[in-house]
């Protein structure tokens, strides 16, 4: 094929790194933070125990220590990042739990302090689509006028039966309500999907990607389901009620999902893993670069690319 439009190298999909370098002209480091929020699926408002895959850290296993201030977390993780990259700008990422699950003034107290740090070019906020009250939407709209804002919505699957099985405690219709409330305000959205959820086959996973792609989100994250210690899924795996994907299966699914996603949509992530001490499986996910290389090789072997099925 001719070179993929949104690539400066051999990539056949629209990478996050490509997007940021072209937008800001330099390396941008995402700094994962923990603001100490909880979730309506944990505190009993909608459910208890959280989603069945969710760790005690609220999917923020690589975020900062919530016992420390936001600014202190930012500084510590920034220094770690600079061991890998000598220079660049920063995008604070409020990752753990549900980061709009509080009144707007509380959010303001968490977000503004880090936005003032030197080199910060934007803000990424992970949340649920059912935690976007009017006061929160008004504040996000204000932020969107002042900085490069992305709101990350955990959808995981468009199938409500899957949502019920993983104790998601909101529906696809709930997701669409939140999605539209954000897009009506011109706010960039990153949608999260998880591959390998219990009860789903490849056709369902590709359908989820295609359905999300039709919404034309700014970004998508495609995650591999991985099982961590201390989660409900750990028990499901032990009892034989859950089968984890093999690497070749996962690569095949990702390639098919990329084909049905619009080329303009930025792919922030193509895999996912847990901490080495907490991950139960699949253990092959720890070799992240090998997984990404396998995806690149399969795209090249098949002579396909992001959006190929939409032509």
From TrEMBL:
- Keyword Repressor, does the record have it? no
The record's PROSITE patterns line, in alphabetical order, gives: RADICAL_SAM
UniProt xrefs under SUPFAM superfamilies: Radical SAM enzymes
All residue ranges annotated as the Radical SAM core domain in the record: 23-264
The cross-references to Pfam families, in alphabetical order and at most eight, read:
Radical_SAM, Radical_SAM_C
Alphabetic keyword roster: 4Fe-4S, Iron, Iron-sulfur, Metal-binding, S-adenosyl-L-methionine
Q: Which cofactor does it need?
A: [4Fe-4S] cluster
UniProt keyword S-adenosyl-L-methionine present: yes
* Recorded GO MF terms: 4 iron, 4 sulfur cluster binding; catalytic activity; metal ion binding
Question: PANTHER family attached here?
Answer: HISTONE ACETYLTRANSFERASE-RELATED, PROTEIN YHCC
Q: What is this protein called?
A: TIGR01212 family radical SAM protein
Its lineage reads: Bacteria, Bacillati, Bacillota, Clostridia, Candidatus Ornithomonoglobus
């Amino acid at each position: 094929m001719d070179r993929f439009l949104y690539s400066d190298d051999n990539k056949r999909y629209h990478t996050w790194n490509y997007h940021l370098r072209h937008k800001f002209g330099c390396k941008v480091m995402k700094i994962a933070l923990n603001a100490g929020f909880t979730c309506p699926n944990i505190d009993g408002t909608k459910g208890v125990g959280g989603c069945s895959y969710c760790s005690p850290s609220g999917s923020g296993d690589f975020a900062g220590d919530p016992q420390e201030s936001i600014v202190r977390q930012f500084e510590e993780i920034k220094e770690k990042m600079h061991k890998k990259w000598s220079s660049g700008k920063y995008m604070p990422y409020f990752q753990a739990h549900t980061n709009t699950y509080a009144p707007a003034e509380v959010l303001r107290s968490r977000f503004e302090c880090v936005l003032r740090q030197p080199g910060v070019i934007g803000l990424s906020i992970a949340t649920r689509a059912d935690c976007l009250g009017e006061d929160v939407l008004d504040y996000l709209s204000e932020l969107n006028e002042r900085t490069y804002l992305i709101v990350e919505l955990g959808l995981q699957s468009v199938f409500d039966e899957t949502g019920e099985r993983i104790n998601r405690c909101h529906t696809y219709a709930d997701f669409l309500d939140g999605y539209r409330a954000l897009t009506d305000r011109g706010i960039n959205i990153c949608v999260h999907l998880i591959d390998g959820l219990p009860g789903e086959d490849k056709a369902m996973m590709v359908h989820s990607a295609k359905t999300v792609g039709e919404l034309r989100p700014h970004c998508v994250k495609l995650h591999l389901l991985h099982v961590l210690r201390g989660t409900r899924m750990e028990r499901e795996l032990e009892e034989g009620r859950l089968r984890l994907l093999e690497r070749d299966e996962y690569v095949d699914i990702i390639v098919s999902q990329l084909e049905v996603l619009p080329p303009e949509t930025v792919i922030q992530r193509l895999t996912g893993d847990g901490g080495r001490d907490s991950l139960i499986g699949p253990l092959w996910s720890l070799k992240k670069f090998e997984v990404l290389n396998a995806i690149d090789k399969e795209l090249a072997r098949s002579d396909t690319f992001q959006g190929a099925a939409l032509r």
